Amino acid sequence: MYNIGDKIVYPMHGAGVIEGIEEREVLGEVNQYYILRMSYDDMKVMFPTDGVAADSIRGVITLEEANNVITYFNDYYEEINTNWNKRYRENVIRIKSGNIYEVAQVVKMLMYRDKTRGLSSGERKMLANAKQILISELVLAKGLPQNEIEKILSDIVDDLISSAKENS
Q1: Of 2, 80, 114, 132, which is most buried with the most CB atoms under 10 A?
Q2: H or E element in which residue 9 lies
Q3: What's the mean per-residue pLDDT of the chain?
Q4: How do residues 82-119 score in pLDDT, each as one tens digit?
Q5: Same domain, yes or no, for 159 and 105?
Q6: Whether 16 contacts 45, CB under 8 Å
Q7: Is residue 1 part of a domain?
Q8: Enclosing domain of residue 70
């Protein structure tokens, strides 16, 4: 069980800080709930302290691991599947995994595609969600503001695009 003040990651939502643990009655049943303040948009999320949601949460990565994620984001490159339906399904699986490296893959691939070819509205929403998940954890782990993390990621993708243009 986590405590008030702990920094955690709630898959499909992102990272935040536990602000409280409260008992609430929902559908006639009294349970304990974490009150999580998300780091990305200052939103609060409430979920039970036990069950599937609680089993999927994890602590925020360390500063060293955050630096490794940014290095990975810089080094990772994969040809993007041209079939948008298959690409979309693969990306949903990656995001749901809760693995920050998998989420970083989705963010980088979609940012690259968005800047070079554009995205469908569904993939644009997916990119926004995946960026929120990735950036929220990096903000807490590195102690940097959101806009600084966004700039780091954007600069990496811009450099990749420039390098690809030079090599073609």
Answers
A1: 132
A2: strand 7-10
A3: 91
A4: 788 898 999 999 999 889 999 999 999 999 999 998 89
A5: yes
A6: yes
A7: no
A8: 63-167
